Structure formats: structure tokens, C-alpha cells
UniProtKB/TrEMBL annotation:
Coiled-coil stretches noted in the UniProt entry, renumbered to this chain: 183-210
Natural source organism: Paenibacillus donghaensis
SMART domains reported in the protein's UniProt record: RelA_SpoT
GO BP field: guanosine tetraphosphate biosynthetic process
Domain RelA/SpoT, residue spans: 52-175
Phylogenetic lineage: Bacteria, Bacillati, Bacillota, Bacilli, Bacillales
Name under which the protein is recorded: GTP pyrophosphokinase
PANTHER family in UniProt: GTP PYROPHOSPHOKINASE YJBM, GTP PYROPHOSPHOKINASE YWAC
One Pfam family here: RelA_SpoT
Pathway: Purine metabolism; ppGpp biosynthesis; ppGpp from GTP: step 1/2
């Protein structure tokens, strides 16, 4: 490796956080447009809130070690999908699938992978839908497709995952069986809450449709 190669690698490495930040900004803008359109069309947006973050270098390194990859720029870009991360919290599960269908149909991003932990929760009870996308970033040298991970959750799933993240996630020892079972139980409770809210929404919608029909509108 020549000195020039080395300097180029350092420069590429220095440019990375800015690249991911810009890609995330572009993605955030697209979601913002969807949110506004939904609100205008339906009177409310099913997207409750959106949070973005760029993964800390230390956390990237730890994840690479966890996955058994030697550190290099190529390995990092190939194996770490969530350097740019976005979390979208929706009111209802069906809104999550509606949003993913829409994202899959867009020409200004590529859906690379979908991991459905809602249909197939993780062993500990974790539920979310993860979508790995690539977003085009127009640079001086041409277009570069930058990867980002979008995590979609309901409010109840987000509550569970945030608490679990604070309490246990990355806890490197085996959890006692009764603690793991209670944690899973809490995930089930969150799921039941989601379903109850959906049933209530249906009921309220039917009531308001009945009112409209009754008023002759
Ligand atoms: P952090 O600190 O939240 O960023 P793979 O796709 O299999 O190569 P990856 O990326 O680990 O590997 O896959 P996965 O399962 O899609 O997990 C990505 C992210 O989802 C995690 O990032 C967490 O943010 C979240 N996540 C996954 N499993 C759990 C879980 O059991 N509990 C909670 N609270 N969050 C989870 P990081 O980098 O691991 O962590």
C-alpha cells in the first residue's frame, strides 16, 4: 500500500459521517412529505414520530466484533446496515405495512432487505419491522447509493423496545429464566394493547360512519 492509498483511505473515512448524515436528511425529507400528504388526505398522519441517528464509531466497532468481521471500510459498509438509522413510530400495525408497501414502490430509493420481527418476533419478544434501504446521494463524482436502516414500530412496541434497551439489550450475561420470561410476557402485553387499540379504532370508525349515514350526509 502506497502513502497515497493510505491518505485516500483516511479521507474516505473522514467523509463517511457526512455522507450518512446527508443520506439520512434526504430520507427524513421524503418521510416528512409522506406525513404531510397523509395528514392532508386523511385528516391525520399515522406516523406518530420519527427519530434519526448516526451510529457512534465505538458502537460500529463493537458490532463488527460481535459479528466477527475484521475492521475495514469495505467490511463496515458491507456488513453494518444501520450506520444511518431511522425509527418511525406509527399508531397502528397496518400503517407500518402500508408505509413499507409505499417505500417499496418508490423509484427514489431501493429496498434491499425487509426483516419482519412483527410477524416473527425475536426470541426475547422484540417486535419491529426493519427495512434496509439505499438512498441516492448526488455527489460531484456521480450518484452514490447510501444504506440506511429504517425501524418501524407501533407506540407499544417502541415502549417495550426502549425499556428493554435500557434494561437488558447488550447485557452480555445469560438472563435468569424468570426475568427472560417476564420480559417476553411484557412484550405480549404490548402486543395485546396494540390489538385492543385497533379493535377500538374499528368500533369508533363504525360508530362515526353510522352517524354520517344517519344524518343523511
Ligand atoms: P443499537 O444500539 O440500538 O443501534 P444482521 O442484519 O443480522 O446482520 P443486525 O443489524 O444486528 O444484524 O440485525 P437486527 O436484528 O435487524 O438489529 C438491528 C437493530 O435493531 C439493533 O441495532 C437494535 O437497534 C434493534 N434491535 C434488534 N434486536 C433488538 C432487541 O432484542 N431489543 C432491542 N431493544 N432492540 C433490538 P444494534 O446495533 O444492535 O443496537
Amino acid at each position: 500500500q502506497t502513502d497515497e492509498d493510505f491518505v485516500q483511505q483516511i479521507n474516505e473515512f473522514k467523509a463517511l459521517p457526512a455522507l450518512y448524515r446527508h443520506a439520512l436528511n434526504e430520507l427524513e425529507n421524503k418521510i416528512d412529505v409522506i406525513k404531510t400528504e397523509w395528514a392532508i388526505r386523511d385528516g391525520f398522519s399515522p406516523i406518530e414520530h420519527v427519530k434519526c441517528r448516526i451510529k457512534e464509531p465505538k458502537s460500529i466497532l463493537q458490532k463488527m466484533q460481535r459479528k466477527g468481521h475484521k475492521f475495514s471500510l469495505e467490511n463496515m459498509e458491507q456488513h453494518i446496515h444501520d450506520i444511518a438509522g431511522m425509527r418511525i413510530v406509527c399508531a397502528f400495525v397496518k400503517d407500518i405495512y402500508r408505509l413499507v408497501d409505499h417505500l417499496s414502490s418508490r423509484e427514489d430509493m431501493r429496498v434491499l432487505e425487509i426483516k419482519d420481527y412483527i410477524a416473527h418476533p425475536k426470541q426475547n419478544g422484540y417486535q419491529s419491522l426493519h427495512v434496509i434501504v439505499a438512498v441516492p446521494l448526488v455527489l460531484l463524482d456521480g450518484t452514490r447509493w447510501v444504506k440506511a436502516e429504517i425501524q418501524l414500530r407501533t407506540l407499544a412496541m417502541d415502549f417495550w423496545a426502549s425499556m428493554e434497551h435500557i434494561l437488558y439489550y447488550k447485557f452480555d450475561k445469560q438472563l435468569p429464566a424468570h426475568v427472560a420470561a417476564e420480559l417476553k410476557d411484557a412484550a405480549r402485553a404490548a402486543d395485546e394493547l396494540d390489538q385492543k387499540m385497533l379493535r377500538l379504532r374499528r368500533e369508533i370508525l363504525e360508530l362515526s360512519e353510522g352517524d354520517t349515514a344517519g344524518s343523511g350526509a
